[in-house]
Amino acid sequence: MPDAAISDHVLLVHADGQVRGRAPRASVHTTDTPLHLGFSCYVLHEDGSVLVTRRALTKRTWPGVWTNSFCGHPRQGEALSEAVTRHARHELGMEVQALRPALPDFRYRAVDASGVVENEICPVFVAEAASAPVPRPSEVMELRWVRPEHLIHLAELAPWTLSPWAVRQIPALRAHLAPAAPPADAGALRSAALGSTP
Fold it and tell me: Sheet harboring 9-13: ordered strands across?
């Protein structure tokens, strides 16, 4: 059985993205988080809706905040595509397919209300759902399938409702999520904010 501190780690990186080492995941996210490698993924339903999730209240960073479908960290020797598939199963109990890079150079730094810092080189992927989500309660407390145009307008008009990385990612993903997103009316925005299903 591998040591948990070794198997559950993040890859520390230089500013150019080159790996410089690894550290136990539990020790990395502090008020002085080193730059490390992560990823974000947005899962699309066959009807065109996007899966958004609300982070569990036990999460160390941004607990209870709505965000993209899921995020995670690759392990040493693991391809990003493998890490995305692994996290989809772990966090959401689901299979994904047609995985493709959408924002390969995305990077961000953000500080949550408790002072904990996220500091990541974080490629963003889009995938298609191959099964229904069955979320792990320690990771996800709620989820919703939302129309992409509603999500785009929500990020623009009410950014405080979403994680800081999602707020930056969503507008840049417009062509991947909703190539022809029409303007949303007030009723549509209210539905998006309340998390109604399509």
Answer: 19-24, 9-13, 36-37, 117-121, 107-111
pTM for this prediction? 0.86
What six digits make up the tokens of 30? 């502090």
Please tell me which residue in 71, 122, 139, 149 is annotated as part of the active site. 71
Q: 71 an active-site residue?
A: yes
Is 122 a residue of the active site? no
CATH T-level fold of 4-143: Nucleoside Triphosphate Pyrophosphohydrolase (3.90.79)
**What mean pLDDT comes out for the span 148-158?**
94
Q: Which residues of 82-92 are buried (b: 16+ CB within 10 A; e: fewer)?
A: ebbbebbeebb
Task: Identify the active-site residue in 41, 91, 118, 120.
Answer: 120
